[in-house]
Records
---
Amino acid sequence: MKFFCAYLLLCSCATRLVAENPAPISLSEPQQKFARELATVFQTLEKKNAAAGAGVDGWLFFAGELRLLSLGRFWGDEAPKVSRAHKPELADPIPAIVDFQQQLKVRGIELLVVPVPPKAAIYPEKIIPGVKISGSDTAPVLRRFYDELRKAQVEVLDLTTTLSEIDDSNRLPAFCKTDSHWSGAGCLAAARAIADSVRRKVGVSPAGKEFLPEWKDVQINGDLVSLLPHDVAKPGPEKISVRTIREKGTGAAVEPDPNSPVLLLGDSHTLVYHDFLAERAGLMDQLAFELGSAPDLIGTRGSGATPVRLNLYRRSLKDAGYLAKKKIVVWCFAAREFTEATEGWAKAPIAK
């Protein structure tokens, strides 16, 4: 009964926070122009039934991310007007995210939301040549959205600055040119930022294993190539560098630890370079090295919005004591999910 009352109290407080009248979002002229130009690019791609477009210097961009960056407010009353969700009542991401945080909190589990910034927000000049805007100014609406989540007591780790500041002179840029995912360097930078937040929030004791890193070059076939318009030349394979991680002594790959207090939850950004495109070099692997112990992992190649939370529920059904082992959930997914998730943002239980 106490558990249920605490949950209701949290729901009531959060609802009041997110229901306040939203302040207008003021954009500078360069920000308005950038959004307009991205909207034009997206509309052109949509007319061609293409899900990706070509920028300059071989850079490719996912159309849904361009659309996200071209939109204004996409939560609250505005959500059903711009969301790709099939059901209008599931268009607004905030209620589902806040509900998830509340369910975890009453169980003593922290939540860290880690949206992966759109590639065009990090490299605006690669999609709109000559654009006069810095990487820190490309996504003002997303920044406001994160502020709204923080008002509702949801902690958000915005990686925009972290990825924008990567020195690409040695290990390539923060994102792959021809793929929708971050590069090996971007994955590493994200892992370090996440590890810092995890240590600050809950602390993690090393598991007694030592891990060894090694940079390797791999060749990938980017997922955006097949999504280009039919009249655009298709680039070939791309070479990237990834930091592989192995156990010292045995040389074994890092395996997710179901007993870890840290759960990494999310979309394909939690799986890339671990399950596909490369091995031993994904976000889970990098976190193991940075934290000194392997986290647990629930990842999906599909949407990181609702389906992956349902996967967490299924896991807890199989193991009634599963959530009792957790201190923090790191929820990492592409920021485009806020508007592009066709399943929408449903509230979902995390346990019976």
---
Amino acid sequence: MTSDGSIRGQVAVVTGGGRGIGAAIAHKLAAMGAVSVICGRNESLLRQTGGEITKGGAKCEPIPCDVTDLRSVEALAARVEKDFGRTDILVNNAGIGGPGGPLHQMPPDAWDQVMNTNLRGAFYCIRAFAPMMIRSGGGHIINISSLAGKNALPNGATYSASKWALNGLSYSVAEELRAHNIRVSVVCPGSVHTEFSPHPGKSPEKMLQPSDVAHAVSMLVTQAPQSFASEILLRPTQKP
């Protein structure tokens, strides 16, 4: 952070940044003065979101990347280091819900798809970006998890398992990297209202909004340097 606690001039990489929660986080960090590097598999969505961010005078760089592909993630990290020289903030937001239903009826390829995106993707990104942060003297890694990683989720066991694992990964990596001045945190929101993830039977007005998750991320990256919050559990004020 700068002396006034802002993140002006920092470089923030947001996975799954083309829409929903990721786009809201990218908007927020760019508005705070960071360069938001957004990545995802849908190039047209990335360009659209990037255009919306830069239209207001903020800085955004859309770069296609598939977090389930190690070479794609390594190429992203190499480009960020070449173009910007550093990464100060990494937000592992990319994630999918997967099909519902009892676990014993779950196709193995559906299990693999959820785990590869929600868990392996975070591993690949930490593997690729943490060395850059170490070289530059520190940074923030924020993993977007879910309250499903804290509570039972019948008919959503695969998604729940991926988020429980992401939480465990986050706590462990935080201990590994804190000596390098890298603060690793996890944000666990409840159901978030986005146009891409409808929640039948819930009131959209009472649900968490993507901007709520973005606000939690903004709090994490502007903490005083002598401490860090290892997790944020985010719930709506009223039950939707």
---
Amino acid sequence: MARYRDSVCRLCRREGLKLFLKGERCYTEKCAIERRTYAPGDHGRDRRTKLTNYGVQLREKQKARRFYGIMERQFRNYFETAAGSSGVTGETLLQLLEGRLDNIVYRLSFAASRAAARQLVRHRHITVNARIVDVPSYQVKPNDVVAVREKSRNMVPVLAAVEGIGKRSEMPDWLEVNEKTMSGRMTRIPSRDGIAAPVQENLIVELYSK
């Protein structure tokens, strides 16, 4: 399975904003983009070329991919699913991405980053409706209860993440969390206003519609 193995801080610097890929480090002065605001590479400081319309659309798609931590083919599949739905394509695309189990685990603050959330899911530390699910791309539906397995609740990374609930950002209004039981529930499918993603999805739709 394809996987990005280079420094994730380079991705934030390339996109020119924090994608919060490094967990708690992103909230400290050690964050790479705080220290080096220019793009990575030997010529990162000298990149002043104005992007074409295609370049702007491509950068927005890459930003979305990296924000949610998925590869190109999988992202394209999500877009095709969204395009075949009856709703607004861009909004549906973000709803599908937000509904991924690894993203829900991260949004519920059971993990410090989406990468950490994927690891928890793959290592069978997460349940959905009291059943173990080890597929990060599993689509969580409204009223599904996502929880950390009882035997996994004393893991240091999980405890550290739960202690930070509310510190990173406000809990989305379409999620409910119970810190004591380390469980949460998706109350509804999120609207675009309830999705905190630094993405202009209309540019992604334009890119794939060519």
---
Amino acid sequence: MSVAPAPPLLLASTSPQRSAILRQLGLPFDVVAPRYVEDDDAAVDPVALVREHARGKARSVVAEADGRPVLGVDTTVVLDGAVFGKPADADAAGRMLDALSGARHAVVSGLCLVMPASQEFVGDETTFVTFRELTGRERDAYVATGEWEGRAGGYAIQGRGAALVERVEGDYLNVVGLPAALLVRLLAEQFAGRYGFG
């Protein structure tokens, strides 16, 4: 028995990395910019924070969904309990890289899938990344590339930032920007066969 194809997901993100991952997974989707303002409260648990942001992003565009599932995602970097968001400038990026140098940190993502009947599924994924010990020259050279801009933790593992990394434990694509294993599992459970999973 054939399974009816599912409608394109509505991705509440303009991140090129998230779009690239959805294309890599063979998923149909459309993009819309979320109308949600992130408030990174340092007192909030990082997992709770990314789950809240993912939910907020997804909910902010539900009115445009036309019955399609809406996907919201938020990712942050955590080192020793401190949240490393997107650096404001090159100096902040350099300080983040100094802190991450030679250390193991967590990349934490929240994912929210809002279904056509307004049912929500919210999950989270954590991947651990260990940096090499960086020299000052390496740090400065990386900051000079500008690749840190708009990146949680001040680096992009899918680009030249790969040279900063010694080890990845868990879902690599989560570090890039979307917890793919979590999304695939959710789609397989909720839309068995319709997106090619389950």
